Amino acid sequence: MNPKIIDGKKVATELLDMLRNEVTTFRKQFHRKPGLAVILVGNNAASSIYVKNKISQTMQVGMESFEHHLKEQTSEIELLTLINALNNSEKIDGILVQLPLPAHIDAKKVLLAINPTKDVDGFHPYNAGQLATGGEGLTPCTPLGCMMLAKSIIGNLTGVEAVIVGRSNIVGKPLAQLLTAANATVTLAHSGTQDLQSVCRRAELLIVAVGQPKMVQGSWIKPGAVVIDVGINRLLDLETQKHILVGDVDFDAALPIAKAITPVPGGVGPMTIACLLQNTLLSANRRERQVV
Ligand code: GUN
Prior knowledge:
Elements: H1 8-30, E1 35-41, H2 45-60, E2 64-70, H3 76-87, E3 94-97, H4 107-113, H5 125-133, H6 141-154, E4 161-165, H7 172-181, E5 185-189, H8 196-201, E6 205-208, E7 226-229, E8 233-237, E9 242-246, H9 251-254, E10 260-261, H10 268-288
Parallel strand pairs: 1-2, 1-3, 4-5, 4-6, 6-7, 7-10
Antiparallel strand pairs: 8-9
This protein binds guanine.
Guanine binds next to strand 3 and helix 6.
């Protein structure tokens, strides 16, 4: 592979290998497996694939997976009742509700119902607040993965000029907190940002999470920048008439300009699941040590 391409699969595999060892130690010490409950409502095709991958990797590191596949018509109260049961279950250390939820269910209400100590996605407002104020909580997985990849290239992020494009609760906002805590100088750009191109060109570390295929062009990238592309967009390749996955950055244009760049697929994607399992083990250890 081109040495400029950041191999997310490799970094994720190393993390998963480490977690497998730590899970073995946990099982010997506490005579049980860390448990992750995954809830999928309905049959969204992309969600079904994500959930399948999460379940298979949970088992591969030696944790117990509890799958709850609910039908599309499931009522909000049924879902809240299930979450309440999982909150109270001794076997469960992590609860993940796959998003998006069907339109008749209020996702905010559902995320609020998860016990924050089991919120391995880190989406509960309690955990968002802990992250913002430097407290102990659970941190969203994709931003954690981005940080690991950025540090794998740059090392210490103190003083680094970082630009994030995209202000979602899942990626952009928590990532701004993590980068700030790591002493980077952070700009959080979004759809209202003026002259986005110039803002991006300032970045020594550019992280893009907007869901717009190939939006960031080569000319937007400062020579020698490290580029982390969070986007996963499905496009029809007109030449081959096959669907392909592309990121939010024009990879081919960016590669010669950047110091290093994540590919899509095989960049940030594999890190997200590895960080989810890291959060699950963290939650399991905290629960056993009664620090929650
Ligand atoms: N849908 C897309 N990404 C995610 C994620 O990281 N967690 C959950 N729960 N749902 C998602």
